[in-house]
Design a protein that fits this description.
Two copies of one chain form a homodimer.
Chain A (H helix, E strand, L loop, with lengths): L11 E5 L3 H12 L3 E5 L5 H19 L10 E4 L2 H5 L4 E4 L5 H13 L6 E4 L6 H4 L9 E5 L9 E6 L5 H13 L3 E4 L9 H17 L5 H9 L11 H8 L4 H9 L17 H15 L4 H19 L12
Parallel strand pairs in A: 1-2, 1-4, 2-3, 4-5, 5-6, 7-8
Antiparallel strand pairs in A: 6-7
Helix pairs in contact in A: 1-2, 9-10, 10-11
Chain lengths: 323, 323
């Protein structure tokens, strides 16, 4: 693809920034048997990274290491050029400050050859806004992970206006190659997809805390004991598809459509036009991909049970006297 | 507590409405060894309920049945008085239409003795708005479950203006007694807590579909492979507490606070005042309840791994060649 390397030829990657996200990336790359070169200007970066990798390694081992993976196969540098030496891919995870990202990405693009793709962990900036000062922005791609990057598979991939489509496609393939779940977006939107969803929930939570409507603990319990148990199994759309009963999403929208006008959140809903209604219904059908309604329910139930059992292996029947 | 029965003395409950939610409640009550009397006016209610219970029973068996629990210990009635006979508790799960709920709750209150508490499965109406026509609204309480009610533990409990506090407390205790996770709310807010959070996410998803920014499938994948994997383990607040690194929620708010102004969702955030900032930080501390940061991370990681393993038991290392 273009002039970019074959994935299997990459043995060394560079992690720029070794905070929670950058360090998590480093741990993940190590678990894939890659050598990792880390750049971080702070004097205690090496120590913090050591602790982070040590804490993550049991989890990574549990999930399965690649051949030759070692928790020690990393070096930490304060000199950028040194950190980039021999790296076949670069993951930038600097603090979320636009000017800082712009400057750093420009330096990274300038310091690497035309075959090195640079992925940014930004949680919300569009690459078009971050790549403004780079002389060559063609290899700059957003590769947005979730915390902790060594356990959550999702990476959202999207290029900026100046990004070469081949570089974006290469990055998506690369993340998939190392075992990530990739969403390739056609369009830059602030916060991408998952953070927009998460941020809507978070803002509503902040409003509730602000108004004294719920405590922090109640908000967390409402998710962990409620809809949160469904979400690793089926996303919000398929969840509502099943909530509609045998009528599916169509019934759901017709029955609960009016509640989009209710003040159930501070977020105003879009108008539920016939077009939007149909697009959501069709989307659920596409996603169900021929699975019967009863099959989707069985999958959901099996998933929730597996999760509840996994999180509470000793879960036992409640002692309600029988009739 | 007041004049209400001891929980262990209740052997029979009534389910009003046998749709997805009402039928799910019936299945759950049966699994707890209770006799269930179902009222539903539709002619095929009995058949649909039979199918729903049969589909749910393997899951309920897997989670553990109470002594004497039988999937056949139910009767279906079209006569309301008959359905209520001998019921020590009533769960109302009629369609989400205000006038219908008002009418039905008034009839239920009128047809039962002063010792019978009536829980409503409403997904968003305040009891104060639903109880307007009831002669005796003192025993009418919201007991809001999540779909499927036989697998998701959460029940949100809140009374209306005319509800006797003892009845609300009794209902909360009852749901806990039968094995549910209860959030008791002091205050009525539309959509309660979990649905407000879920609805914010859902509306943002609808906006994205409406604008062609994401497909239904991408939205679901963004959750199931992303933040959704964290939410059964730690809710949104504790998640962000850990995302802040060792600085916790305080660092998170100071670092990402400015992004509350970003257009990452259509939901406008509250002003991050010093008071709100402190309330969120204190809430996280309360919830952490003395657990060290490293312990919280270890719990999160163990939970996510358990979930990933539970959902993909055959998950194996990705074949990345070692160095």
């Amino acid at each position: 693809m273009g002039n970019f390397p074959e994935y299997q030829d990459i043995t060394t990657v560079a992690c720029i920034g070794a905070g929670t996200i950058g360090g998590g990336w480093a741990a993940y790359f190590l678990s894939r048997g890659l050598s990792v070169r880390v750049w971080d200007p702070s004097p205690d970066a090496g120590q913090k990274l050591r602790r982070l990798i040590d804490a993550a390694w049991p989890a990574l081992t549990e999930l399965g290491l690649s051949d030759g993976a070692s928790p020690d196969d990393f070096t930490v540098h304060t000199d950028l050029a040194e950190a980039l030496r021999g790296a076949g891919f670069i993951q930038e995870s600097a603090p979320e400050v636009l000017e800082l990202k712009q400057d750093l990405l420009a330096r990274l693009a300038g310091a690497t050859g035309p075959d090195v793709v640079i992925g940014s962990s930004t949680s919300g900036y569009a690459m078009s806004d971050m790549a403004t000062t780079a002389v060559d922005a063609s290899r700059l791609v957003v590769g947005h992970p979730f915390n902790p990057p060594y356990l959550i598979p999702l990476v959202e991939v999207v290029g900026g206006e100046a990004t070469e489509p081949d570089a974006t496609a290469w990055a998506a393939g690369w993340y998939e190659y190392i075992g990530k779940s990739v969403i390739s977006m056609d369009r830059e939107i602030p916060g991408f997809i998952a953070n927009r969803l998460q941020e809507a929930l978070w803002r509503e939570a902040l409003h509730m805390v602000d108004n004294g409507e719920a405590t922090v603990e109640q908000i967390d319990l409402a998710i962990t004991e409620g809809p949160g148990l469904r979400w690793p199994v089926q996303g919000p759309m398929l969840t509502f598809h099943l909530a509609g009963g045998e009528g599916g999403m169509a019934h759901m929208l017709d029955h609960f459509g009016p509640s989009l006008k209710s003040p159930w959140t501070r977020l105003t809903a879009p108008e539920l036009t016939p077009e939007l209604r149909q697009r959501v219904i069709d989307g659920c059908d596409d996603e169900a991909d021929g699975r019967l309604f009863s099959e989707l329910i069985a999958e959901r139930d099996a998933g929730i049970i597996a999760i509840r059992r996994a999180l509470a292996p000793s879960m036992s029947p409640v002692a309600v006297p029988g009739t």
